[in-house]
Amino acid sequence: MSPPRDFEAMAEPLPATDPYSRRVLDVGDGVEVMLAVGDRGAVCAHDHGGSRGLVLALAGSFDERRFTWERGAGDVVDLVAGASLIHPPGDAFAFGPEVVHDMASARRRPHAPRVLPAPST
């Protein structure tokens, strides 16, 4: 699956301080559609503020790691990385409000054109 050329033109430039750019394409009742472009190899563990979502890999492959909270010695709680999942172009996956993950793209191409958070219930 190759992306329509207009998606690449619509992408925001990568900010100097973040590993990805994002551009909101549409907002509806409890739904946001956005185009995200990741910098090659850059990662940033994040959650989605209690929202659910769907990601569609538009172009280029990327790796996703999901994290869990684990209690260590004493009362220390650590964020621990799990296995890496490879998402090729055309792949789609959903996540729930509890997910903490990071994504690293193989190259600077649009990789997550649709993030569709739904209100947490």
Structure description:
The chain is mainly beta. The chain has a single domain, classed as Jelly Rolls (Sandwich). It has one helix at residues 5-10, and strands at residues 20-28, 31-38, 53-56, 62-71, 77-87, 92-95, 100-105, 110-112. The longest helix has 6 residues, at 5-10. It is globular and about 50 Å long. The protein is 5% helix and 45% strand. Mean pLDDT is 76; it is low at 108-121. The protein contains 1 helix and 8 strands. It has a 3-stranded antiparallel beta sheet. Strands 5-4-7 form a 3-stranded antiparallel beta sheet, with no helix packed on it. A two-stranded antiparallel sheet has the order 3-6. A hairpin with a 5-residue loop joins strand 4 (62-71) and strand 5 (77-87).
What does the secondary structure layout of this molecule look like, with pairings?
Elements: H1 5-10, E1 20-28, E2 31-38, E3 53-56, E4 62-71, E5 77-87, E6 92-95, E7 100-105, E8 110-112
Antiparallel strand pairs: 1-2, 2-8, 3-6, 4-5, 4-7
Brief descriptors of the model:
single chain, 121 residues, mainly beta, Jelly Rolls, 3-stranded antiparallel beta sheet, 8 strands, 5% helix
